């Protein structure tokens, strides 16, 4: 099982805060540093100060400040950027990182942040997402020297040189969500990884089963799809330390223990083992207290080795 650190900087984190946790992520042997792609806090105690940071601008900087970890968002919103420009941005960050980017894209859901920054938020967004994936993968996959054209309901591209190209021959694409029909189809068509975020184990298992069926129906090799989950995390070396970490992120210890990855080291290992049993291959550990680097130290030393 791979362990990735996943952060929510819109809740109140500077670039320097993100740099510190990304470098700790690399130093401690985690597989990747991922961050959210949001522009408005969600009931953050400090109001989200000092304010939001752009996800891809941040990842570009981190690409130059790290050397081994994978980098990405969970997930970028299709409402935020034109797919042609996003393809350029992601390819450039991949070049800057030496080929360490993974690309996750979703429909977007937080209407308030769109209103706060004047970004259109259409009611129907799934078609937008599908066309963006068509455009972005089409641009990246167009052979050098050839041109890319696309005509869709939402986007039209004419005579594009389809540049720049990523450093990787293929940037891994992540599609997530628990939709019962369209999401499995979209994942089977475009994704290298399917992610179910913040869901009970039974619901995650059912979602995985739907995507496995869609992959089979699409004629893909079953082993060509990776399965992952994201889970909010607060772990302690002792019960007292766990309770302190839960309180620091405004969570009730009992509720958090039941719904998320909370508790002592052994409890965390047991829950992760149950996730492994349903086929989870990668876990995105959502770390809400970005100042608590000792938390990462504990996970790296006491939890991750159980799944090496």
From TrEMBL:
Residues 3-249 form the Luciferase-like domain. Keywords: Flavoprotein, FMN, Monooxygenase, Oxidoreductase. It comes from the Bacteria. Pfam families: Bac_luciferase. This is LLM class F420-dependent oxidoreductase. It comes from Microterricola pindariensis. The lineage of its organism: Bacteria, Bacillati, Actinomycetota, Actinomycetes, Micrococcales.
């Amino acid at each position: 099982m791979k362990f990735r650190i996943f952060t929510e900087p819109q809740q109140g984190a500077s670039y320097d805060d993100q740099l510190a946790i990304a470098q700790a992520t690399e130093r401690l042997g985690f597989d990747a540093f991922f961050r959210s792609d949001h522009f408005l806090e969600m009931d953050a105690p400090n109001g989200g100060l000092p304010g939001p940071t752009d996800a891809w601008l941040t990842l570009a900087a981190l690409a130059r400040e790290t050397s081994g970890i994978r980098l990405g968002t969970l997930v970028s919103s299709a409402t935020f950027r034109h797919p042609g420009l996003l393809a350029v941005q992601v390819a450039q960050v991949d070049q800057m990182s030496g080929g360490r980017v993974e690309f996750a894209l979703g429909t977007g859901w937080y209407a308030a942040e769109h209103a706060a920054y004047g970004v259109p938020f259409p009611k129907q967004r799934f078609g937008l997402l599908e066309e963006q994936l068509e455009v972005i993968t089409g641009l990246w996959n167009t052979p050098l020297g050839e041109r890319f054209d696309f005509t869709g309901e939402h986007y039209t591209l004419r005579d594009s040189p389809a540049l720049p190209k990523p450093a990787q021959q293929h940037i891994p694409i992540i599609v997530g969500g628990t939709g019962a029909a369209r999401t499995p189809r979209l994942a089977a068509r475009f994704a290298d990884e399917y992610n179910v975020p913040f869901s009970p184990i039974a619901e995650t298992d059912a979602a995985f089963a739907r995507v496995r069926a869609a992959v089979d129906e699409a004629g893909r090799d079953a082993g060509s799809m990776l399965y992952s989950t994201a889970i909010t995390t607060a772990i302690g070396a002792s019960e007292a330390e766990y309770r302190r970490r839960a309180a620091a992120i405004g969570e009730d210890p009992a509720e958090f223990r039941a719904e998320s990855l909370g508790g002592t080291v052994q409890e965390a290992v047991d829950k992760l083992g149950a996730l492994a049993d349903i086929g989870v291959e990668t876990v995105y550990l959502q770390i809400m207290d970005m100042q608590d680097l000792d938390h990462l130290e504990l996970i790296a030393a006491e939890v991750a080795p159980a799944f090496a």
